[in-house]
Amino acid sequence: MIKLFSGSANPKLNEEVAKLLKVPLAKSEVVRFGNSEVRVTIQEDVKLATCVVLQSLSNPTDTHLMEFFFFCDALRRQEAKRVIGYIPYFGYARQDIQHRPGECVSVNVIVRFFESIGFEKIYTIDIHDEATEGVFSIPFKNLSALPLLAKKVKEYLKTTKQSETVVVSPDQGGVERARNFGEAFYGTSDFAMAVIEKKRKLETIHQSKALDLYGNVKGKTAILVDDMMTSGGTLIHAAELCLARGAKKIIAAIVHHDFTAEAPKNLENDSLDKIFTTNTIALKPEQKFSKLEEISVAPLLANELKNFL
Fold it and tell me: Where in the sequence numbering do the catalytic residues fall?
């Protein structure tokens, strides 16, 4: 039997996972002080137990990250046999290379913390680059919500005909991700894709430009597939380019919605017909808009956690 602990980043998702597993969430206390410090206290016996901490590393990322670290330390001090981290959304994963001289490689630092604090294994959902697995010296598993999104998109469109639809990667780095979605959507690896060439402005955050599109989208419903949307700029520019090249309709399947304050308004008013996403990050009331539809990843997490029951 496992003991399942919920971080404060996405309690609704964690409760849903616990309900599916028919395992109660273990008792703990997270206190935030006026000076922004946080304290985590484990409130039940965990000696020699396998303990799982569920915590999305979403905005405010640093706050949720420190809380995650403190959960592991507190459990180790109470002699938990194993501490396993489940991170539905892995913050800092995009900072995985040195884009410009002098920059830090943030994800490497985060991984070293996980290892030194005492996590035995880390799970996540659709990390930005699967190559990050090579940074870990402890076991790491990257689950994917793309099949869940593909199933939902298929139900929405009521067609998987390649003459009517096309999967589009909004940048060169997301080709494999879009192909994985396409295989789940079409049920075969034999399909044509479209890829957008994107240039990011390294000196300015949240800004990029779609330069060109390779592939045929004319007269088709274009399905833009990506791991995350933040400002929405990449998605909006990709949609505009697809429409300019003759696409009939644009929908998007994006795993994580790590929204900036302006993103919901920008995406609501753009040329996208529908955006499917997941609940790896808790959606605030002011971030909801009519085009956006969430799909729960609780079954995906619960199915993997069954291995510890």
Answer: 198
